[in-house]
Amino acid sequence: MFVDRKDAGEKLSVKLEKFKNENPIILAIPRGGIITAYETIKKFGFDWDLIIPRKIGLPQNKEIAIGAISLDETSIFNEQYISMLNIPKDYIKNEVSEQVEEIKRRLLRYKGNVDYPDVKNKTVIIIDDGIATGSTIQVAIKSIRKHDPKKIILAVPVAPKDTISILEKIVDEIICLITPEEFYAVGPYYNNFEQTTDEEVIEIVHELSREITD
Q: Structure pTM?
């Protein structure tokens, strides 16, 4: 159980100290992931950037994912689900376009550019505040893999055991502090899991950016 994202991040940083000599780059998934990543970035002075995967939802219920997309338009889709529900190709095409534009909008707002993180030949540590089904994380990993990293580490405070079993096949290492067998949502593992605001993300990004230039 974690007090909040800051507490989870502090506990995660203990496990990530072992990568100090590898000069890794942290890729935080906003919004909540940047708060969770903050302590590791600040404590060890690791390079960092943001990565924003977005889910593609059902036409009638956007919360239910049929796929996911990343900045470079890397995608994953549940083709069986799409076929079973007869979801039109035009809908998927439009959703992909909209979500890529949303990724760009958020990146511009948060860090002022839409540049893809420089991960070539680097140890990449992806940090989020928790994982449920893992579809958006999967597309982030698939996207990063295209850009020739040395290795990919996934670090999260909490994720269900079955999701971890899927993800460990596509990354080099997973660090997860709590892996419950019975899992319903990320929120119950935090005393405070209030939604992170854009303003909080921007404030942290600005603080970390100032420390690099100081």
A: 0.94
CATH number, domain 5-52+113-213, options 3.20.20.70, 3.40.30.10, 3.40.50.2020, 3.30.420.10: 3.40.50.2020
Distance of alpha carbon 163 from alpha carbon 3, whole angstroms = 23
Query: Terminal CA-to-CA distance of the chain, rounded, Å?
Result: 36
DSSP class of residue 2? Answer: B
Pairwise CA distance, residues 6 & 39, whole Å: 7
% of the chain residues with pLDDT over 70 = 98
* CA 107 – CA 115 distance, rounded (Å): 9
Measured CA to CA, the distance from residue 178 to residue 160 in angstroms comes to 8
- Residue 64 has a pLDDT of 86
Q: Decide if 143 contacts 70 (C-beta within 8 A).
A: yes
The full set of domain ranges for the chain reads 5-52+113-213, 54-110
Angular region, 179: left φ>0, alpha ψ -120 to 50, beta rest:
beta
Report pLDDT digits (tens) over 198-213.
999 999 999 998 865 5
Pairing mode, strands 47-50 and 151-158: unpaired
Q: What CATH fold (topology level) applies to the domain 54-110?
A: Ybab; Chain: A; (3.30.1310)
Q: In the structure encoding, which two tokens stand for residue 70, read together? A: 């990343």
